[in-house]
C-alpha cells in the first residue's frame, strides 16, 4: 500500500507474481486457489538489504580479527579471503540468502569485491536463481594492493582491463532491466583506498552506458579522511564528486563522516545511502545520522554489511538497530518503528533504483511480502500498536516469506531443497578458509 497506509484485519491478493489487490475486512476477497490465514499477524512488504558481503559468512566471528579497527580487521582477513573460489562463493551466497529470508528479507544486493578467481559472481547468481531470491549483484573491484599503497594482498586485486571487461560481460549476461526482474547487476568499486581514480571514472562511464546502478563505500572511517587528503588532496566526498559519481544512480555504504555541507550536496545530486547498524557498533565506529540525511531528501536504506563484521544476516535486527541508534543519538522521538520499517523497505528500494516494484504492496508491485511471527511471550502485553510491538518486542522472524508470490518460508520453515546438502559443504569450506583443517 502507499506509504503510511495500514489496513487493520485486511487482506492482500496475489496473482502471477504481483500484488493484485488489497482490501479491508469489510470488502469481499477475490476468488483464490490458496488462502493463507495470517491469524492476526503483521504483514509487511519484504525487507530489502542494500549492502552485504555474503562471502564473509565463511569467516564469521574469526577470533584473530574480532577486536581490531576497520583497517586492522581488513588486513587480517584479506589473506583468508584470497582462498575464495566458485564453490565457496556459491555456498556462502546460498547460506546468506537462507538467513536473510528467515529475517523477512526478500531482495538483497551483494558487494562482491574480492576476486582471487574468475566467475565468482556467476556462482552467486547460480545460488540466488536456484533459491528464487531477488538479487542485485554488485560487481565490486580492487586495483590497489599493499604493493601499491592499498590494504589487500595482490592475490585479490585485478587490473583495470579485466575489471571493465568482466563488468560488461556480467551486465550483458545477467542484468535484467525488465519489470519483475529477479536478477540485476550494479557496478561497485570497493573504496577509494582500494581502487585507482581511473577505474572509478571508467566504471561511472560504463554504468551510464548500460544504465545500471553504482555502489561503493564512502566516508566510512576517520582514517579514510587522512588517506584521501594524503593521496588525492581532497576529502572523500570531494573525490567522489570529482570522479563523476555524484548522480542519482549511485548509492553509498555507511556514509558516516560527511560534513553537513557535503550531505546537502550529495542529497541534492540524488545520491542515496545505506546504514549498517550492527557493523557500525561492532567495529566501534560512528554511525550515519539517518534522520538528518532523510530530512534533506536523501533516500536511506538498511544493510547487514559483511557477516564477518556484523556476524549476522538478519535484516529485522538491523531495522531494530537503526531505530535504536537514531534514538540513542538524538532522543526518544528521533525514530519510530514505522520510520525504521520505511527505511528497510521504501528507502532500501530507492537505494537499488527499484522503487517502482519493491518496498511496498501497492497493486502491481512484486509479490514480495512477509507474514511476521514473534514468540508469544515477547508479544504478551503489546496490545496498542502492532508495528511498535513487532520491532520493540521481538525478535521477529518470517512465518511466511514470499518472493514473486512463491513461498520460500512456510510456517517458519525454509523451503530450500538444497540447504541440508549445502550446510556441511559450507562448514568444510569455512574451516579450510580459517586454517582449521
Automatic annotation (TrEMBL):
InterPro entries per UniProt:
Amidohydro-rel, Metal-dep_hydrolase_composite, Metal_Hydrolase, MTA/SAH_deaminase
Sequence ranges assigned to domain Amidohydrolase-related in this UniProt record: 42-376
Q: Does the keyword Hydrolase apply?
A: yes
| Keyword line | Hydrolase
Keyword Lipid metabolism part of the UniProt annotation: no
Q: Name one GO molecular function term.
A: hydrolase activity, acting on carbon-nitrogen (but not peptide) bonds
Spell out the protein name for this chain: 8-oxoguanine deaminase
Amino acid at each position: 500500500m502507499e506509504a503510511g497506509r495500514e489496513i487493520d484485519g485486511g487482506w492482500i491478493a496475489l496473482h502471477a507474481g504481483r500484488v493484485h489487490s488489497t482490501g479491508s475486512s469489510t470488502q469481499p476477497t477475490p476468488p483464490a486457489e490458496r488462502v493463507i490465514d495470517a491469524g492476526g499477524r503483521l504483514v509487511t512488504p519484504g525487507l530489502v538489504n542494500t549492502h552485504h558481503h555474503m562471502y564473509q559468512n565463511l569467516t564469521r566471528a574469526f577470533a584473530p580479527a574480532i577486536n581490531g579497527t576497520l583497517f586492522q580487521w581488513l588486513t587480517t582477513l584479506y589473506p583468508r579471503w584470497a582462498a575464495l573460489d566458485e564453490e565457496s562463493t556459491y555456498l556462502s551466497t546460498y547460506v546468506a540468502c537462507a538467513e536473510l529470508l528467515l529475517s523477512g528479507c526478500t531482495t538483497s544486493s551483494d558487494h562482491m569485491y574480492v576476486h582471487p578467481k574468475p566467475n565468482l559472481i556467476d556462482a552467486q547468481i547460480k545460488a540466488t536463481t536456484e533459491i528464487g531470491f531477488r538479487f542485485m549483484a554488485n560487481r565490486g573491484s580492487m586495483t590497489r594492493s599493499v604493493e601499491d599503497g592499498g590494504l589487500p594482498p595482490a592475490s585479490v586485486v585485478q587490473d583495470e582491463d579485466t575489471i571493465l571487461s568482466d563488468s560488461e560481460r556480467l551486465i550483458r549476461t545477467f542484468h535484467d532491466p525488465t519489470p519483475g526482474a529477479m536478477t540485476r547487476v550494479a557496478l561497485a568499486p570497493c573504496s577509494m583506498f582500494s581502487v585507482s581514480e581511473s577505474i572509478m571514472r571508467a566504471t561511472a562511464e560504463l554504468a551510464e552506458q548500460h544504465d545500471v546502478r553504482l555502489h561503493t563505500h564512502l566516508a566510512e572511517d576517520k582514517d579514510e579522511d587522512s588517506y584521501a587528503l594524503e593521496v588525492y588532496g581532497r576529502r572523500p566526498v570531494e573525490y567522489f564528486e570529482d570522479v563523476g559519481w555524484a548522480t542519482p544512480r549511485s548509492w553509498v555504504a555507511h556514509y558516516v563522516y560527511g560534513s553537513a555541507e557535503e550531505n546537502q550536496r550529495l542529497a541534492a545530486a540524488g545520491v542515496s545511502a545505506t546504514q549498517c547498524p550492527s557493523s557500525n557498533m561492532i567495529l566501534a565506529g560512528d554511525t550515519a545520522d539517518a534522520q538528518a540525511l532523510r530530512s534533506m531528501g536523501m533516500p536511506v536504506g538498511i544493510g547487514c554489511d559483511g557477516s564477518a563484521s556484523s556476524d549476522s544476516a538478519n535484516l529485522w535486527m538491523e531495522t531494530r538497530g537503526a531505530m535504536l541508534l537514531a534514538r540513542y543519538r538524538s532522543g526518544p522521538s528521533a525514530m519510530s518503528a514505522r520510520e525504521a520499517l520505511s527505511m528497510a523497505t521504501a528507502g532500501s528500494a530507492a537505494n537499488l533504483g527499484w522503487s517502482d516494484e519493491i518496498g511496498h504492496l501497492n497493486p502491481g508491485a512484486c509479490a514480495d511480502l512477509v507474514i511476521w511471527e514473534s514468540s508469544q511471550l515477547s508479544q504478551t502485553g503489546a496490545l496498542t500498536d502492532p508495528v511498535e510491538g513487532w520491532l520493540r518486542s521481538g525478535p521477529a522472524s518470517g512465518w511466511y516469506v514470499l518472493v514473486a508470490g512463491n513461498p520460500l518460508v512456510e510456517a517458519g520453515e525454509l523451503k530450500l531443497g538444497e540447504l541440508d546438502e549445502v550446510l556441511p559443504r559450507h562448514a568444510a569450506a569455512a574451516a579450510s578458509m580459517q586454517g582449521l583443517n
